[in-house]
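Notes from hallway chat w/ T.B., transcribed later so I don't forget. T.B. wanted the structure written out for a chain they're using in a teaching module, and asked if we could keep both sequence and structure tokens in one place. Agreed to drop them here.
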Amino acid sequence: MRYFLPRIESDLVAIGSMPQTIENVKALLEANDVAIERGLGALHKSGSLKLIEVTDDGVVERILQAKMAKLAR
């Protein structure tokens, strides 16, 4: 399984995504008060998971994506 977090620059979502390690994903879930097992389960089941954080500057939305790694030939 490969994990991606869309790259965001200012208010625009850039084309492409940044690969994430499982440790990065777990840290992001913890930082957003999401139980790791529940968050990973939801991510694997649906293929994406939206995390919403309310800050003094506004609302930050992060969308994690999980994609099956292609098998090497």
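Follow-up for T.B.: Residues 2-67 form one domain. Might be a good example for the class.
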